[in-house]
Write a structure and sequence with these properties.
The complex is a heterodimer of chains A (395) and B (380). Chain A has 395 residues and is α+β, with helices and mostly antiparallel strands. Chain A contains 11 helices and 10 strands. In chain A, α6 (236-252) packs parallel to α9 (320-343) and α7 (266-274) packs parallel to α9. The longest helix of chain A has 29 residues, at 284-312. Chain A is globular and about 75 Å long. With 380 residues, chain B is of the alpha+beta class. In chain B, the strands form 3 sheets. A 4-stranded mixed beta sheet of chain B has the order 1-4-5-8, covered by helices on one side. In chain B, strands 2-3-7-6 form a 4-stranded antiparallel beta sheet, with no helix packed on it. Chain B has a two-stranded antiparallel sheet with strand order 9-10. The chains are: A alpha+beta (395), B alpha+beta (380). At the A-B interface, α7, β10, α8, α9 and α11 of A face α8, α9 and α11 of B.
């Protein structure tokens, strides 16, 4: 048996012994394992599963062992993912620390910062949120104004962030702050701030879907020790951009249907809600729209795979993340529009009797999907990036 | 699985690129068109293509081919698409070649495959009968008469029909007009055959097509390709390979139009600026870029599926054909618009690409046909 197959056997055995039965079922609303100091464990198995996986570093399988990661090779990680899929294991930990901050810290932070911040991310002990956008700095992110002053032994921060996902549930915030007002991009720094202090206040924003995943975050004389500056002073924009790539990669994956829950495909939904004739969706125009959607989706999935293979082979377009962010989110929005069209009035319920839980979830998810092409850089910004960086069209 | 080229394939791509750019540029195609060339393709170029081994790329080595495989052929077709090179690759190598390999008796293989690989024969598939691709709607009849069959009917849009040495004719030997069973394929010599009338048709893309009429054409039973009534089993896989080949050619076409358009955006000045600095055009160009990238992925995947003999070839053939048909319409339309008035002139190449794109899109099933098929294959 070669090493990888041995690893597979051991992994399978360990997963069998350690993955609780309820963690082998599709994720339920409210059971998402976000971790953090304020974590609420609706299903106690979620906590057990997260801790067992974290113990091995398998919440961050490919991160270095010295920072608590699993230290797995790409191939080993692929085996782990396959084995987890085999038993339908839920993801043990969801977190912006894992998806966004961690990769940036590994690349840009100093040794002390890595030792301090990465292990708690892996263990799900600290929940992070992202302090990027401001009321006056959306697409023009580099126009941000949150003021950060050097007070000798610490930084003093004043300003307001907006669209901070789950800020009300987070423990720490990674922030872009202005440390030089005479320059735009070169006056931005990347700062880590503990939210457990009087100078940090959060206020949830109710969205069109009825949910409040985003907050306004007010920083009023918030303090951060100087060691919390990641990278050099005024060089935060480089880190910010890299982190945005991770964020775009995360959001673009939604185009593949990850955002809408599993279950039967849209073609089955059409047969159920519209009816069928001779095994075909009864309405030919809806059927054609569904084929287009599925073709787009398959073409997109193949392109994601090609890009991954090219990256492995050391080729490939650098600004690919913008293409995926643009296409993936637009695709996801179209998918929900089509799903709603297929479901008729059953896709338009808000709450209460007359609708199944899945139907109500779809309505809310349709509304939520509208944000996909706004957050993490709007579709228009992505098209700008492609035009300028890939096609090299002039200003 | 291989969406990235290996070293051997990368080398082949380079060879093909150099060959078509240097030996068969668009000027070559214009010359054929302007001189109303009788063959409609450059026979000297075709010989060179055969010498490079491109004609034998799908033919096994035992029959004199290079057996480089479908991905290799796709790379060649893509490069041919970039310069609008008119060759019998689709008719002879993809359609006839794969039908004979799939359904031919050993005698038929021995006879035809080496000739295909060496470029010494041109073959054509006589299939279509109406304005739209509808491969099982066959009214052309073949009736058994002793050891022979008598074929009667009319075929249209027979690619390379007027220059073909041998036709593969799809005729009905039994069944109703839309049944897949009851179709039989025949190898019919175009020389010295009584009752056969071939008329060249002039299409907008200035490539070769023909109307072929059969008035009781007598064909020996030994010329049946595949089995009597079972021609569909040979025809359908060959059509899928043809569809994927056309998608590969179209990929080269859209890449060329896209690149040319982006270059033009960087060069043309209006209002004192290059027009590529206008966001209205930048965003459209960026969208076209995404479309080209998606097209490249589906074509590569479809070619790989053929190479690996996977069972999702039909679905991927329809995906590739439909996507490339739609994308080529969008990209040639947008490319022409962004070129402005100059794009409307015959002197400029973009119109030639647009005309080829439309004919290629209609060949072996347009986007509507393939969307319907894609859904049928998934049972909805």
């Amino acid at each position: 048996m070669d090493a990888l197959e041995k690893f597979r056997a051991e992994t399978r055995e360990w997963l069998e012994a350690n993955c609780p039965a309820s963690m082998r079922t599709p994720m339920k609303e409210g059971e998402e394992p976000w971790g953090g100091r304020k974590a609420v464990w609706k299903n106690p198995d979620s906590k057990i599963w997260m801790e067992r996986m974290a113990e091995r570093g398998w919440t961050a399988p490919t991160w270095p062992k010295e920072y608590g990661g699993g230290g797995l090779t790409k191939e080993e990680n692929m085996v782990l993912q396959q084995e987890m899929r085999r038993i339908h294991a839920r993801t043990p930990l969801m977190s912006f620390g894992l998806w966004m901050l961690g990769p940036a810290l590994l690349e840009f932070a100093n040794e002390e910062q890595k030792k301090e911040h990465i292990p708690p991310i892996v263990r799900g002990e600290i929940r992070w949120c992202q302090g990027y956008s401001e009321p006056g700095a959306g697409s023009d992110l580099a126009g941000l104004q949150t003021k950060c002053e050097d007070k000798g032994d610490h930084y003093l921060v004043n300003g307001q962030k907006i669209w901070t996902s789950y800020a009300d549930k987070a423990d720490w915030i990674f922030c872009l702050v202005r440390t030089d007002t005479s320059k735009k991009h070169e006056g931005i720094s990347f700062l880590l701030i503990d939210m457990d202090q009087p100078g940090v206040e959060t206020r949830p924003i109710t969205m069109i879907s009825g949910a409040s995943p985003f907050c306004e975050t007010f920083l009023t004389d918030a303090k951060a020790p100087k060691k919390n500056l990641v990278g050099e002073l005024n060089k935060g924009w480089t880190i910010a951009k890299r982190l945005l790539q991770h964020e775009r990669a995360m959001i673009s994956g939604m185009g593949l249907g990850g955002g809408g829950g599993a279950g039967p495909g849209i073609e089955q939904a059409a047969k159920d809600y519209i009816g069928e004739e001779n095994g075909r969706i009864a309405d030919p125009s809806v059927r054609d729209k569904i084929v287009r959607q599925k073709m787009d989706s398959q073409a997109f999935a193949l392109t994601m795979r090609r890009s991954a293979e090219e990256a492995k082979a050391g080729q490939g377009p650098g600004a690919a993340s913008s293409m995926f962010k643009y296409y993936g989110t637009e695709l996801n929005k179209r998918r929900y529009e089509l799903l709603l069209e297929v479901m008729g009035i059953q896709g338009l319920g808000w709450e209460g009797e007359g609708f199944s839980e899945d139907e109500l979830t779809t309505t809310r998810a349709w509304l939520r999907s509208k944000g996909n092409s706004i957050e993490g850089g709007t579709s228009e910004v992505q098209l700008n990036v492609i035009a300028k960086r890939v096609l090299e069209l002039p200003e | 699985m291989a969406l990235v080229l290996n070293e051997e394939q990368a080398l082949l791509k380079e060879t093909a690129e150099q060959f078509f750019q240097e030996k068969v540029p668009v000027a070559n195609f214009r010359k054929l068109r302007d001189s109303k060339d009788e063959n409609g393709y450059d026979t000297a170029v075709w010989r060179e293509i055969a010498n490079l081994g491109f004609a034998g790329i799908m033919v096994p080595e035992q029959y004199g081919g290079t057996d480089f495989g479908p991905v290799g052929l796709g790379l060649v077709l893509e490069q041919a698409g970039r310069t609008l090179a008119a060759t019998p690759l689709i008719s002879t190598v993809l359609l006839a070649g794969s039908a004979i390999q799939q359904g031919g008796t050993s005698a038929q293989r021995q006879k035809y495959l080496p000739l295909i690989a060496s470029g010494e024969i041109v073959m054509a598939l006589a299939l279509e009968e109406g304005a739209h691709h509808n491969p099982c709607a066959i009214a052309t009849k073949a009736e058994a008469a002793g050891d022979n069959f008598k074929i009667t009917g009319k075929k249209v849009f027979v690619l390379d029909g007027h220059v073909a040495d041998v036709l593969i004719v799809a005729a009905r030997t039994s069944g109703g007009p839309k049944d897949t069973s009851g179709i039989t394929l025949f190898l019919v010599d175009t020389k010295n055959t009584d009752g056969l009338k071939i008329t060249r048709t002039h299409m907008a893309d200035h490539r070769n097509a023909a109307i072929v009429e059969f008035d009781g054409v007598s064909v020996p039973a030994a010329n049946v390709l595949g089995s009597v009534d079972g021609g569909w089993d040979v025809l359908e896989p060959a059509l899928d390979i043809g569809r994927i080949g056309i998608a590969a050619e179209t990929l080269g076409l859209i890449q060329q139009v896209f690149d040319t358009t982006v270059d033009y955006l960087k060069e043309r000045k209006q209002f004192g600026k290059v027009i590529g600095s206008f966001q209205a055009l930048q965003h459209r160009a960026a969208e076209l870029f995404c479309e080209v990238e998606l097209c490249r992925s589906v074509v590569l995947e479809a070619l790989s599926a053929v190479e690996e003999r996977r069972n999702d070839v039909p679905k991927l053939a329809s995906l590739a054909k439909a996507r490339l048909a739609e994308a080529s319409r969008l990209i040639t339309n947008e490319g022409l618009q962004m070129h402005g008035g100059i794009g409307m002139t015959d002197e400029y190449d973009i119109g030639l690409f647009m005309k080829r794109a439309r004919v290629a899109a209609a060949t072996l099933g347009d986007a509507n046909f393939h969307r319907n098929r894609y859904a049928e294959l998934d049972d909805y």
